[in-house]
Amino acid sequence: MVKKLHTTGTDKVVVILSGGMDSTLSAYKMVEMGFDVISLHFSYGQKTESREFQAFSDISDSIPVSNRYHFELPFFSEIGVGTSSLIDRNMVVEEGGVSETEIPSSYVPFRNGIMLSIATAIAEKEGAIGIAIGVVEEDSSGYPDCREDFISTFEKSINLGTKEGNLKIFRPLVNLKKEEIVKEAISLAVPLNLTWSCYQREDKACGVCDSCRLRLKGFKIAGVEDKIPYLRK
C-alpha cells in the first residue's frame, strides 16, 4: 500500500481503473500525490470482462479508495460488432505486434472519450478536482484516443461543459515507455500480479496479443519477471 505524502482531506480524483498495469500505476500515483481516489471501472462486453473486473476489485481493495463505481455499457456490444476484435467474438485479435501506421482491430470506437465523459459526471457529483487516466503515448499509434493532444483538447471541452469548469485530466504515464512503467510501479510497491492486460484470455494471459506483447517487452527490458500466468511467453 502506498502512503499518502499529503492531503487536504477534500481533494478527490476519479481514476478510470481498467485493471491493467497502466491504470493501476496511475491510481497508485494519485494516492502518492495525496489525493483521495475514487475508482471507476467499465464493463463493455470485452472478451476479458470478468477478469478485468476482478483486477479492478482487487486493486481497489489494495489502496485507500473513498468510493468506487462500476458501470456496464451494453451499447458497446452493438458498436463493437464488426469493428472491434476486443468485443466481437467472431473477430481475431492481432498477434503480430503494434503497427505504427495502422489502427489495430482491437480499437473500440471512441472508448476513452465515452469513458472520460462518464468520469466527468462522476467527478462533478463527487466534488472531485479531476480525473486520472492511464493513457500512454506509446500506444497512440494504435489508439488515437490515447494521444496527448486528444486528452488535452478533451480537458478543455469538459471544462466548457461543466458547472465549475476547472477539472483536470491527469495522465501521469503519457510520456513513459512500458519498461519505465514497470520500474516505477515496482518503486511504489504496486501489486502488478493483480493486474490483467490480456485481450483474449481470462485464465492465463495468451502472451501473443498486442497488449501482452507490450507488457512482456516492458518487463523484459526492465529486467523484472512478470508474475501473472501466461499460456505462452
What is the CATH class designation?
A: Alpha Beta
The percentage of residues in β strands lies in 5-15%
**CATH architecture group name:** 3-Layer(aba) Sandwich
Distance between the termini: 29 Å
Helix content: 25-40%
Number of domains: 1
Rg on CA atoms, Å: 17 Å
CATH topology label: Rossmann fold
Number of strands: 5
Structural class: alpha/beta
CATH superfamily: HUPs
The ordered string of helix (H) and strand (E) elements is EHEHEHHEHEHH
Largest sheet composition: 5 strands, parallel
Strand order across the biggest sheet? 3-2-1-4-5
Poorly predicted segments? 1-7
Overall form: globular
Number of helices: 7
Describe the protein's architecture and organization.
By secondary structure, this protein is of the alpha/beta class. It has one domain: Rossmann fold (3-Layer(aba) Sandwich). 36% of the residues lie in helices and 12% in strands. It contains seven helices and five strands; from the N terminus they run βαβαβααβαβαα. It has a five-stranded parallel sheet with strand order 3-2-1-4-5, with helices on both faces. Helix 1 crosses helix 6 and helix 6 packs across helix 7. The two termini are 29 Å apart. The N terminus is likely disordered.
